[in-house]
Amino acid sequence: MRRVLSVLALLVALSTSAGAFDFTDIQFWVGTGSKKAGLIIDWKDGKNPASLAWGYRWDGDKKGEDMLAAIVRADPRLYVHVSSSGAYGVALFGTGYDLNDNGFATSPALTFVNGISVGTPNDNRMATDPGDHYREGWWTAGYWSYWLRSSTTSAWTYSGVGMSGRVLEDGCWDGWSWAGASQAAVAPVQPVAAVPPTLAAVPEPAGLAPLFLTVSGMGGLFLRRFRKS
Questions:
Q1: pLDDT, tens digit, for every residue of 41-57?
Q2: Which pTM does this prediction carry?
Q3: Is 224 among the domain residues?
Q4: Which residue, among 222, 193, 212, has the nearest Cα to 66 in the 3D structure?
């Protein structure tokens, strides 16, 4: 039954990709507040849909890493492998998505807490299920390029800062797009709306850097990742 519902929801999401994609097309919103931003992840791996979108709401000042952390923790199908927080903040090494909704794992194995793994990059890592999205790289396999735009209608620009230094603005978009072995970065293509496990808003967590400290120093004892039953 769960698989049937997931497939039906995905078909509904695919229907939103016909025209220009904007905030009204987003189905999976995370956080609360008067400001909003969009996040697109484009795996460019030929698996449909290869590009997915989420929405983020907040008040006050937030960074790109805050949005990514909140969305990863809220979506039980989304996973990231990142660096610990250093002088230049947090780097994104790998990103995965349980596309067929039957569980997610990588080889070599990673341990995810709230969907987040902290460690070092491995250009040979892949998803154990060939039906899932997973891209990881840093040296020769490729890397995750980071793109920004100020509104739905503005052009994408390659980010000059990492997600730890990127200050979100109301109405903006962040895009993560896989650049392969050629290292040729291309902006994310028009996405499909990611499907939420529920329609309820999900409270936002702290940013990635504090979460990494908890994962590394305390074994994630006080963190829970909720999954659909």
A1: 999 999 999 999 999 99
A2: 0.82
A3: no
A4: 212
